[in-house]
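Trying the structure run again after the queue cleared.
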Amino acid sequence: MKIEQTPAAAASSPPVHSRRVGTFTMGVCLVFCGILILLTLFAPSLDLSFYIKLCPLVLVLLGAEIIWFSVRRPDEKLRYDFLSMILCFLVICGSFFLALVPSLVRFYGPEGEAACYRLSGELDQACYQLLKDDPRICDCSGFVYLSSLETDLSVPLSELSSDSYQALDIDLAGGYTDAEAFAKDAYDIWQILKESDLNLSEVSFYWNSQQDTSPSQMSLTIRSAFSQNASADQLTRMVVVEQPVDTIVTDDTQELFEAAAS
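Done. Tokens:
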């Protein structure tokens, strides 16, 4: 027999309370992100990448909130407000992006370009002091590229971290008849640079004979770990020998020249 609940009994039964899960977690996340973004305004060099790696802790906090209310408040019905979670997630992502904007403007804007120009000049001066008495060198140019947003743009070259990219272009003055002699001089100069305090990522050697004889141009780039530890003979096989296009005359072009002259 089915027993129907009377209105009085229904009124005496305790009401079932409901609670939205995620409210506490999202509140904590918003407070944390607000404090973090506020710190970036006063400390632009603050490394945000470390704090972004802590994002999975949001899931841990949300799970702890669910367990807490499930154990401590079993009489309450849990409701998941997915729309609020999505909106809070978008707000947090947008806030992190806006916090990165000042660092991006500082790094890629005029301030970053001025820092690279200054550091490149310091690299030029350091190489000049190191190689100024070497008659084999005609010219040397340095280039410094910063690769980290957290780099202090006022740091001197001697304190620059190893994640920066420092490169040298060296023009050799000696006349070379083969790649072996060119590679030998490049090897000797590279050994001097390796023993210095410079943290070089790439060194390129060039030579142009300024003559019509072949070969007239040679180049060698030392970049990888293999080339940085290669011997002079191994570097010889890496030399690029080029001949200017205007000195290459084929039979067809020779006939055209003779026809034009006549």
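The mean pLDDT is 77. Worth checking whether this holds up in the mutant runs.
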